[in-house]
Specification:
The longest helix has 30 residues. Helices cover about 50% and strands about 15% of the residues. A four-stranded mixed β-sheet has the order 1-4-5-8. By secondary structure, it is α+β, with helices and mostly antiparallel strands. A hairpin with a 2-residue loop joins strand 9 and strand 10. Helix 3 packs antiparallel against helix 4, helix 7 packs parallel to helix 9 and helix 8 packs antiparallel against helix 9. Bound molecules: flavin-adenine dinucleotide (FAD). Flavin-adenine dinucleotide binds next to strand 1, strand 3 and helix 12.
Length: about 375
């Protein structure tokens, strides 16, 4: 089969549509959202109406039934507009709606997936705890079955969409004696009795994103809200590798934004009587940025292609894309600050925000160290 590096006409049209939407409907909200550290929640129904929340879900759930590549186009364009907003949308679709679609009962799909795709309800995934991040099997949250309900106790932290989500998929031990395999996943409604605290977390970057610590004290979860039972946790986590790829696409978009700004600035700023872009030190930096971004982009879309085929390269390439895009975005954002000199360090231009936002790329959706672990394992080491 020949290699074809061109997007289809449909994918190109989709990119134009999302770019247009991003620049007209989202970009004007960014400054305030970043300043007030408040996600503009009203964009969710709009994203739903445009079909952006259901890109790869089948039509029967309100989706548009397109592919992972199109989803990456969306994530890349969103990352180019604002990383914080992009992260919340990705957490909703890839981390919350996807598990309901893959593992949910018909009733759960009806209640959470369909309105989720419409943007009428927002989802979150609660896996990380104060004492367990990369080592998810070490979580302490428990759920005990009692009188047709589960009683959930524990604390989750760093949860994207945490304060604003209508439902949170929560990982908890239903059998503590079975390390790892005794974990189940529950759909917890935001108004469930015993869901006592949603504490906002302030961050270095991604300030427009909603991030929270969540506290469950004898939280009552109806039996029918069990999403994945014991033994299914590892498999369920493995399916989340799709989120890793869209996360990497978001990093490419953020890199692109930093690059575009630095390029434009370098053509306008003068020093020693000429545009700074004419200095080889600056032009080579910009050329290097373009090369690295393009390489990361190729890896992301290759990973999306493998994911779509569900083949044996999917896991390895997803981790490669996530790892490399995280390295690239941090390097590009740092160099973009350098191209702007003092203005790169000030808040007048968005480059300092890109620099702060870039750091997260190597932490969420599996740290860069964990991506190395996965890649090495896939190489048979
Ligand atoms: C803004 C933000 C949003 C987030 N959103 C969510 C969310 O929506 N839902 C959710 O559940 N979580 C979320 N997280 C949590 C995120 O997934 C974790 O921070 C991440 O998995 C790392 O876990 P940790 O912070 O506990 O670090 P640790 O696991 O304690 O790691 C600390 C350091 O040790 C390294 N390390 C750990 N184990 C190994 C190993 N085996 N080999 C080599 N190095 C290792 C790590 O790479 C890291 O450098 C979010 C985090 C942030 C900052």
């Amino acid at each position: 089969m020949p290699i074809d590096f061109e997007f289809t006409e449909e994918q190109q049209m989709f990119r134009d549509t999302i770019r247009d939407f991003g620049e007209n409907e989202i970009a004007p909200l960014v400054e305030e959202a970043e300043k007030n550290e408040k996600f503009p929640k009203h964009i969710f129904p709009k994203l739903g109406e445009m079909g952006f929340l259901g890109i790869s879900f089948p039509e029967e759930y309100g989706g548009v039934g397109l592919d992972k590549i199109t989803e990456c186009i969306f994530a890349e364009e969103m990352g180019r507009i604002n990383a914080g907003i992009a992260m919340c949308v990705n957490a909703h679709t890839s981390l919350s709606c996807v598990p309901v679609y893959k593992f949910g009962t018909d009733a759960q799909k009806e209640k959470y997936l369909i309105p989720g795709v419409e943007g009428k309800v927002i989802g979150a995934l609660g896996l990380t705890e104060p004492d367990a991040g990369s080592d998810a099997r070490n979580i302490r949250c428990t759920a005990v079955k009692k009188d047709g309900r589960y009683i959930l106790n524990g604390v989750k932290t760093w949860i994207t969409n945490g304060t604003m989500a209508e439902f949170v998929i929560v990982a908890a031990y239903t059998d503590k004696t079975k390390k790892g395999t005794g974990i189940s996943l529950f759909i917890v409604d935001a108004d469930a009795p015993g869901f006592t605290e949603k504490n906002k977390i302030h961050k270095l970057g991604h300030r427009s994103a909603d991030t929270a610590e969540l506290v469950f004290e004898n939280c009552e979860v109806p039996e029918e809200n069990l999403l994945v039972g014991e033994g299914g946790f590892n498999g369920a986590m493995a399916t989340l590798l799709g989120a890793r790829i869209t996360h990497a696409a978001k990093s490419v978009g953020l890199s692109q934004a930093a690059f575009e700004f630095a390029l434009q600035y370098s053509k306008e700023r003068e020093a020693f009587g000429k545009q700074i872009s004419k200095f080889q030190a600056i032009s080579f930096k910009l050329a290097e940025m373009a090369v690295k971004i393009e390489s990361a982009r190729l890896l992301v879309y290759k990973a999306a292609w493998h994911y779509g085929r569900d083949d044996k390269e999917a896991l390895k390439t997803a981790s490669m894309a996530k790892l490399y895009a995280a390295d690239v975005v941090q390097w590009v954002a740092t160099e973009a600050v350098q191209v702007l000199g003092g203005y790169g360090y000030g808040v007048e231009f968005p480059v300092e925000r890109y620099y702060r936002d870039a750091k997260l790329a190597s932490i969420t959706e599996g740290t860069s160290e964990i991506q190395h672990v996965v890649i090495a394992r896939e190489l048979g080491i």
